[in-house]
Each structure stands twice: as structure tokens, then as C-alpha cells.
């Protein structure tokens, strides 16, 4: 049986090891930017080609807090010039890269509240890459890296034709896969055609037959970046449908790591302040 002195020694040793691990974790996360004062809701976003997209970047605030003397610079790796620069209460884009001229902007009214997200208009394939949002303000500075990926995705529309259910989606890129599922989750055979309408962009036409009235079928269209789950319910001569989009697991994993890291950081701070 261990003596009181041994128990105290083992307990203290265990606590030292635990706190050492936690300190190393905090330092590692800080150096990697995960706990930077500048944050993003999504560091692995997927933008829809031809649509506007917002790259999230912000300074955490309590809703009433305002930030003074804010300077914001958005840059992109391997790009000459800046994507967008904001200084002294206005844009300062003398060295802005030409491909972002007239296409990049901030929500200027929101900058003083810590929202320095970048609105990128009419996304192009060339826009994908590594972006850095760098912020300086009266109380400090920081930056966050965001890797933008681009894809094309649209929700399918459904029609009834010759005893079958036809799904059409106008734009998908990269090349997608199409799977039909019954309400019970079983795969269903279908005839699918992918029509290349431009370089690496496809129109999807897929027909499922036979079908039953008052049944619900799911048409799943997916590639390595985006998945569309479209549920179509057949009622007589009509079809009602709804579609939800999900994005690649890497983005979800990054988001969960950020949440876990933030929770660990808060727990440690509360413990030390106790």
C-alpha cells in the first residue's frame, strides 16, 4: 500500500504532466494561428463559380464593442499586389491586383464592429487558393489563413416523363457522380447522362424508372467538394422536391478542430482564474 508521501508525489507528478501537455497544446495552437485574435468561421470554404462569396474574417466582439484605427489587408499567395486593402476608414487599393479590381470589397460599415470579411463577386476558377486576412487595430494585430476552393453546383429540378422521374441539374464541376436512393436507403438503377457544357463543367440529366406514386426518392449528386441531396416526392402528376448541400469532410473537420481548441482554451483560462 502506498504511503501518503508517495500518493502526494504521484499526484503532483501527474498534475505537472497534464499542465505541461496543456501548455504545449496552447503554444502549438497559438503558433498555428488557431487561437489568433483574428478568426474565421470557415477556413476551407467552397465557392460556387459565377456567384458572389464571402470569405469570413473577424475580430471577436461582444456586440457593443467597437474597434478603432482598423487596418485590413487581404492578400493571396503567389499573387502580385493585394486583393484588398483598407486603411484610415477607407479603401487603399493603389497596389491592388487587376483581377480583383471592382470584384473585391469589405462591408465598410461593419469594420468598426470587427467584421472584416471579404466579399468576392462573380467567383472565377482563378480565385481559388490561399488567402490571408491581416488586421491591425488600436489594441493589437493578427491574421488568419483561408484556403478557398471553387466548384459549380446547382439543385436538380424534377419532372415526370414516360413513367419515370427525371432530374436535371444545369451546372456541376468537377465531374459529379449521380446516385438514386429509395426512402429506405437502397440504391436504385437509373440512366444518367453527363453533358460537358464547358471545360470541366457538366449538365446532369438522370432518369429513374419505374417509380411508384406517393413515394419519395433521393437523387444524390456529388463530387469531391460538394454533395447535393435532393428529395423528390411523387404525388399523382406532380413532384415536390427539396435540396440540401453539404461540403467536403475536410472543411467539417477543420471547423470541429477549431471548436475543440476554443473550448480547451476557455476551460484552461477558467481553471487558472478560479
Strand runs, count: 18
Helix fraction bin: 10-25%
Proportion of β residues? Answer: 35-45%
Shape field = elongated
If you average the pLDDT, what whole number results? Answer: 84
Which stretches of 5+ consecutive residues score pLDDT under 50?
A: 24-34, 251-273
Radius of gyration: 25 Å
How does the major sheet shape up? 6 strands, mixed
Q: Alpha-carbon distance between the termini?
A: 33 Å
Largest sheet, spatial ordering of strands: 1-9-8-3-4-5
Helix/strand structural class: alpha+beta
SS summary, helix count: 2
What's the SSE pattern?
Answer: HEEEEEEEEEEEEEEEEEEH
Which features would summarize this protein structure in a list?
274 residues, alpha+beta, 6-stranded mixed β-sheet, 5-stranded antiparallel β-sheet, elongated, disordered C terminus
Task: Provide a compact summary of the structure.
The protein is of the alpha+beta class.
Folded structure, characterized:
The chain is of the alpha+beta class. The protein has 2 helices and 18 strands. The strands form 4 sheets. The chain has a 6-stranded mixed beta sheet with strand order 1-9-8-3-4-5, with no helix packed on it. β4 and β5 form a beta hairpin. The two termini are 33 Å apart.
Secondary-structure map with pairings?
Layout: H1 4-32, E1 46-48, E2 53-55, E3 71-76, E4 84-87, E5 90-91, E6 104-106, E7 118-120, E8 129-137, E9 140-151, E10 157-161, E11 164-172, E12 177-182, E13 187-188, E14 190-198, E15 201-208, E16 216-222, E17 226-235, E18 238-247, H2 249-273
Parallel strand pairs: 1-9
Antiparallel strand pairs: 2-7, 3-4, 3-8, 4-5, 6-7, 8-9, 10-11, 11-15, 12-13, 12-16, 14-15, 16-17, 17-18
Amino acid at each position: 500500500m502506498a504511503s501518503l508521501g508517495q500518493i502526494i508525489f504521484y499526484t503532483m507528478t501527474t498534475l505537472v504532466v497534464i499542465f505541461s501537455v496543456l501548455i504545449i497544446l496552447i503554444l502549438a495552437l497559438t503558433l498555428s494561428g488557431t487561437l489568433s485574435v483574428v478568426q474565421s468561421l470557415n477556413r476551407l470554404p467552397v465557392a460556387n463559380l459565377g456567384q458572389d462569396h464571402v470569405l469570413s474574417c473577424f475580430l471577436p466582439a461582444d456586440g457593443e464593442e467597437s474597434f478603432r484605427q482598423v487596418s485590413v489587408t487581404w492578400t493571396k499567395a503567389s499573387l502580385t499586389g493585394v486583393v484588398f486593402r483598407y486603411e484610415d476608414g477607407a479603401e487603399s487599393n493603389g497596389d491592388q491586383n487587376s483581377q480583383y479590381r471592382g470584384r473585391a470589397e469589405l462591408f465598410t460599415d461593419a469594420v468598426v464592429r470587427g467584421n472584416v470579411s471579404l466579399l468576392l463577386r462573380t467567383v472565377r476558377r482563378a480565385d481559388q487558393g490561399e488567402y490571408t486576412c491581416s488586421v491591425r487595430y488600436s489594441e493589437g494585430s493578427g491574421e488568419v489563413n483561408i484556403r478557398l476552393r471553387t466548384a459549380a453546383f446547382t439543385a436538380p429540378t424534377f419532372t415526370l416523363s414516360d413513367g419515370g422521374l427525371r432530374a436535371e441539374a444545369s451546372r456541376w464541376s468537377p465531374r459529379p457522380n449521380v446516385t438514386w436512393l429509395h426512402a429506405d436507403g437502397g440504391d436504385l438503377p437509373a440512366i444518367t447522362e453527363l453533358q460537358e457544357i464547358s471545360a470541366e463543367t457538366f449538365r446532369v440529366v438522370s432518369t429513374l424508372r419505374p417509380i411508384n406514386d406517393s413515394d419519395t426518392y433521393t437523387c444524390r449528386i456529388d463530387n469531391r467538394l460538394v454533395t447535393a441531396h435532393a428529395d423528390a416526392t411523387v404525388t399523382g402528376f406532380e413532384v415536390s422536391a427539396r435540396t440540401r448541400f453539404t461540403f467536403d469532410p475536410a472543411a467539417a473537420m477543420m471547423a470541429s478542430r477549431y471548436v475543440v481548441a476554443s473550448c480547451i482554451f476557455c476551460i484552461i483560462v477558467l481553471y487558472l482564474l478560479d
